[in-house]
Design a protein that fits this description.
The complex is a heterodimer. By secondary structure, chain A is α+β, with helices and mostly antiparallel strands. Chain A has a domain of 113 residues: CO dehydrogenase flavoprotein, C-terminal domain (Enolase-like, domain 1, 2-Layer Sandwich), CATH 3.30.390. Chain A is built from eleven helices and 14 strands. Chain A has a five-stranded antiparallel β-sheet with strand order 4-5-10-6-7. Chain B folds into two domains: 76 residues, Ubiquitin-like (UB roll) (Roll), CATH 3.10.20; 74 residues, DNA polymerase, domain 1, CATH 1.10.150.120. A five-stranded mixed β-sheet of chain B has the order 2-1-5-3-4, with helices on both faces. The structure holds flavin-adenine dinucleotide (FAD) and FE2/S2 (inorganic) cluster (2 copies).
């Protein structure tokens, strides 16, 4: 059923007041590329659409003094990957943002919407997890921060209460000698949902020969995108090379708990979790050495 | 009961006012209420691009936008592409290359190609193919469309150089 009301509050406080007033009957509208279709296909009932794109805090991104990047939750992907500074400092974000749909989707789709839609196959969430991103959440009642790795709780489910809004994603400044990358596997070149995806963020010693820190995340292999601490642990302290990469890939395969569906079998997904972990690691290492 | 919203917007350079249901799609408003049936409904779920319009300079699927969202915004639809009776260079190129069969996808491809070429007049074939990945055609096999867009780009550059 179509929404009964639409509002485009000009300020964050106005939006929070609407969410507090209408509770679960209200729904935040960012780019609408998930929400509008879900409502049309009767997969979700929404009384009041709260369009947050008129709110400045949600639609701009800024580099903070400490080098971290704060992305307003409703900023469209096209604006993010069109920015040369983001491209230079956070290429893994660009890997994800430029893969979500075609250009028509990217003009509207936001990282906040991708995260709040909480699909197990969402293409920005592994990247955000690998980068250690923090979700800044507000309601009339409170303000809180949640690590993206703890944000999703099941397919389409997350930690947000009905009156809460995701204001921004904060991505810590990249460490010296670090690099990150995201990749997915789909049966065609463009415009498809990930069969499996993965992101890596590695920090190397100054000579580029040893892993000093690593975060690996995989998607579409469990009810939520997963941080794989064992994959990171398999790398830290090890010499940069195929032996360590294969150990991390094995840890990703072991962490995967995939299902079989029309897009792929559980076995294929487990295999892909390893393949993609190795591939994103190789790109992340290259980027770390070039940084 | 739902209250309709009063929407003011600019479509193809003309100010337009209309009443929109809160959950109505922009595509439905254009086609059913404003008589602008050039934008097509192929899939109604964001996958085919037949409904492409340019909203404040950005290429979007009108089926994935709510009509109330365009309040105060600028829209370009396929109806605004030709200059009166003179076809746009892309439209002329589509005709001459026979880049359409049933034609359902054509308005979307033309609007999408126009959005690209106005921003990147020198877009090459790779760039064009990548840009058009969100537009589906069930008839032509795409090659004639890509040829037409490349030719349209030549004509647009020539027109700019001449002016
Ligand atoms: C053709 C097509 C192709 C696609 N391809 C991909 C793809 O390749 N990869 C991929 O990952 N996804 C893809 N998607 C899905 C979708 O585009 C993305 O998930 C997108 O990032 C959603 O962002 P949005 O801004 O459009 O969210 P919306 O649809 O506006 O919102 C999504 C959900 O999040 C909630 N929400 C949004 N913002 C907030 C906020 N700030 N606070 C609280 N709740 C919020 C909404 O209420 C809604 O439940 C595709 C969709 C289509 C139609
Ligand atoms: S009808 Fe809008 S994308 Fe197909
Ligand atoms: S000409 Fe028929 S879908 Fe393209």
């Amino acid at each position: 059923m179509q929404a009964r009301a639409y509002a485009a509050p000009p300020t964050l406080d106005d939006a929070l007041a609407l969410l507090a007033e209408h509770g679960a009957d209200a729904r935040v509208l960012a780019g609408g590329t998930d929400l509008i279709i879900q409502v049309r296909e009767n997969r979700r009932d929404v009384g009041v659409m709260v369009d947050v794109k008129a709110i400045r805090e949600l639609t701009e991104f800024t580099f903070l003094a400490d080098g971290s990047l704060r992305i307003g939750a409703a900023t469209p992907c096209a604006r993010i990957y069109g920015d040369s500074q983001v491209a230079r400092r956070f290429p893994a974000i660009i890997d994800s943002a430029s893969l979500i749909g075609g250009v028509q989707i990217q003009s509207r789709a936001s990282l906040g919407g991708n995260l709040c839609n909480s699909s197990p196959a969402a293409d920005s969430i592994p990247t955000l997890i690998a980068l250690g991103a923090i979700a800044e959440i507000r309601s009339k009642r409170q303000e809180r921060e949640v690590l993206v790795e703890a944000f999703c709780t099941g397919p389409g489910q997350n930690v947000l209460a009905a009156d809460e809004l995701l204001v921004a994603l904060r991505i810590p400044a990249p460490a010296a000698h670090s690099g990150a990358a995201f990749q997915r596997f789909i049966p065609r070149n463009e415009m498809d949902i990930s069969v499996t995806n993965a992101a890596a963020n590695v920090t190397l010693s100054a000579d580029g020969q040893t892993f000093t820190a690593a975060r690996i995340a995989i998607g579409a292999v469990a009810p939520t995108p997963l941080l794989v601490p064992a994959a990171g642990a398999a790398l830290v302290g090890q010499p940069v090379g195929e032996a360590a990469i294969e150990a991390a890939a094995a840890a990703s395969r072991a962490a995967a708990r995939p299902i079989t569906d029309m897009r792929g079998s559980a076995d294929q997904r487990r295999h892909l979790a390893g393949v993609l972990t190795a591939r994103v690691l190789r790109t992340a290492i290259e980027r770390a050495r070039a940084s | 009961m739902t209250d309709k919203l009063h929407i003011q917007t600019t479509i193809n350079g003309e100010e337009v006012e209309f009443l929109a249901a809160p959950g109505q799609s922009l595509l439905a408003a254009l086609r059913d209420d404003l008589g602008l049936t050039g934008s097509k409904e192929g899939c109604n779920n964001g996958n085919c691009g037949a409904c492409n319009v340019i909203l404040d300079g950005a290429l979007v699927n009108a089926c994935c936008v709510l009509a109330p969202e365009v309040n105060g915004k600028q829209l370009v639809t396929i109806e605004g592409v030709a200059d009166g009776a003179n076809l746009h260079p892309l439209q002329q190129a589509f005709l001459e290359h026979a880049a359409l069969q049933c034609g359902i996808c054509t308005p979307g491809f033309i609007v999408a190609a126009k959005a690209l070429l106005e921003a990147e007049p020198n877009a090459d074939e790779d760039r064009i193919r990548h840009w058009l990945a969100g537009n589906l055609c069930r008839c032509t096999g795409y090659d004639k469309i890509v040829r037409a867009v490349l030719d349209g780009a030549d004509r647009m550059r020539a027109a700019t150089a001449a002016s």
